[in-house]
Amino acid sequence: MRKPWGKLLRMSILRRAVQAAALLAFLYLMGAANFLNPLPGLANLFLRLDPLVAVTAMLAGRALIAGMALAGVTVVAALLFGRAWCGWFCPFGTVLDIFAPRKAVRQRSAPPERLRLVKYLLLLIIVLAAVFGSQALLFLDPITILTRTAAAAVWPALGYAVAQVEAVLYQVEALWGPLDAFHNAVIYPVFQDARPVFLQAVSIFLFCAALVALNGWAERFWCRYLCPLGGLLGLLARFSLFRRQVGPACTGCAACAHSCPSATIRPEQGFASDPAECTLCYACVDVCPRQGNAIRAAWPGWKPAPAQPYDPGRREALAALSGAAAVAALAGVEPVRKHPPATLIRPPGAVEEHFAALCIRCGACVRVCATQGLQPCGLEAGWQNLMTPRLEARLGHCSFNCNACGQVCPTGAIPALTLAQKRQTFMGLARVDRNRCLPWAYATDCIVCEETCPLSDKAIKLEEATVTNARGEQVVMKRPYVVKELCIGCGMCESKCPLTGEAAIRIYARRSQ
């Protein structure tokens, strides 16, 4: 039988084109969203398409989140076409395909099939932990991994590299004109001359790089064995209406099994495949010399896909329940639950009691912060707050003219406040350290904190006092103090304090008004 190469090649090319378009759309939305134009409703598009994010956020937050309704599209697609999201649209899956191993590597012995169970266990633990109110493990969701890595590591590093190259090229006077034109037309619109720094950039990048490096053991190792979103879509794919099917034209050449990036085609089972593992990549269809397999409708005679040895059973479900309970319980007994760190300052409007349950650790707010004052938490606030955002005012204050973080948050962990509401929202409270403040400790003139306070009725006032300076002279000194009722804790005073190291005025969390 003659093979219609044109049709098959079009499907293969179409899939790669869709993958490329999805990845470019993800990168564009991430790069285009900024504090000047946060692109509300678009910047977090891929996160809102993620059903794992939707399910866990609503379970942990004990609320229906209207903005996550778009995840229903992915669920319906999975019931129709199985794990097509993984093979066609997932930007992290596309990154893994870009770094796919060479053919020689593909021939290495694959990990044991039983290892596929891990993604289902992770899925169960994450969902059950959300039932207990904990989102601590959602940093393992693939879209949050890629968003966080791009926002806090790759994008800032790329911006720094571009700036360094520009600095070198600007040493050549003849290039000044072209460089100015290129900078104004391309570099500034993309990076806006921002030079962000992130406390967790290296650890975030290394974690993502390690997952990509697992490709060296098996192609799409993450998707096959670890991805909890893949596990959720795999469970739905068992009921899919369109699946890979092997027809009578199959000659048993095994070309399809060798080409499958998910290694789910079983020669010993008549070259059948598990719909829960198939990503509809069409690699098997492309290499088949006689159209022996195809993606077809499973009706008439539709029925759920048969169980597999690596499917979770009762014992695994009980183990996942125990793991989820342990996650929630261990998070609950950390001292941070009783006395959160005084320096743990959340984005404007975020309520600490609900924030950790709704925050999905995606880093979208970190990306659009106008000053890069928002930083991903390490372990200083307990492991249950790992990768959640906090204001590190010494690195950057909460800009008085920016509310972008709430506009891009997909779950409402950071409320979408208007600019007027945000300017009246208390985040923290400033306190002057009189042992470090120049006027208080050294009788040296300095009123920077008072000058930089953005409030019309300054929250930092100056008192006059007659003091003795280092030369023994009596001088009149203006010394700053904070008016508690006016301070909103934006951190501008701390970020602008002229002292090196720790500022002489610091922002502390304000748990009650």
Give me some keywords for this one.
mainly alpha; two-stranded antiparallel sheet; 24 helices
Walkthrough of the structure:
- This protein is mainly alpha-helical and 513 residues long.
- Helix content is 45%, strand content 9%.
- It has helices at 5-32, 45-48, 51-61, 71-81, 84-89, 91-98, 103-106, 117-131, 142-169, 176-191, 201-213, 221-226, 228-237, 255-259, 283-287, 314-332, 335-338, 352-358, 364-368, 404-408, 419-422, 438-442, 448-452, 492-496; strands spanning 242-246, 265-266, 272-273, 293-297, 374-376, 389-391, 428-432, 460-468, 474-482, 505-509.
- A hairpin with a 5-residue loop joins strand 8 (460-468) and strand 9 (474-482).
- It is elongated, with a radius of gyration of 27 Å.
- The relative contact order is 0.12.
- The model is unreliable at 1-6 (pLDDT under 50).
In spatial order, strands of the major sheet run 1-4
Major sheet description? 2 strands, antiparallel
Q: Share of helix among residues?
A: 40-55%
Number of strands: 10
Q: Quick one: overall form?
A: elongated
What is the number of helices? 24
Rg, please?
27 Å
- The overall pLDDT average reads 89
Structure classification: mainly alpha
Distance between the termini: 78 Å
- The share of residues in extended strands comes to 5-15%
Runs with pLDDT <50, length 5+? Answer: 1-6
